[in-house]
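Lecture 7 notes: from sequence to structure.

We start with a single chain of 80 residues. Read the sequence below before looking at the structure.
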Amino acid sequence: MRQNKPKTQLDKVNNAFIAISSDVTAEDKKAAQLELTVSRYTVNSYLKGEAKDIELAMNLLKFFKKRIAARDKELTKAMA
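Now the structure, written as C-alpha cells:
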C-alpha cells in the first residue's frame, strides 16, 4: 500500500515530531516547558504528532532540533 504524502504544513511538522521524538529527552521536555511556557501535556502531544498550532509547533520543533544537534556534536567529540 502506498503512503500518502503530507498534505499540509501541519501534517509535515507532525511527521517531523514523530521522527525526532525518540531523541528528545526528559530534560529537553522540561526545558521546553520552561522556555516556551507550554504544558507537559502539550509537549507530549506534539511529540506524538498531534500538533494543533503551526506557530507553536515550529517553535517547539526548532527548540528540540537545536538541543538534539548540540547533543550529537558532544557525542561526536566524545567518540573521537
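The mean pLDDT is 94. Keep this in mind for problem set 3.
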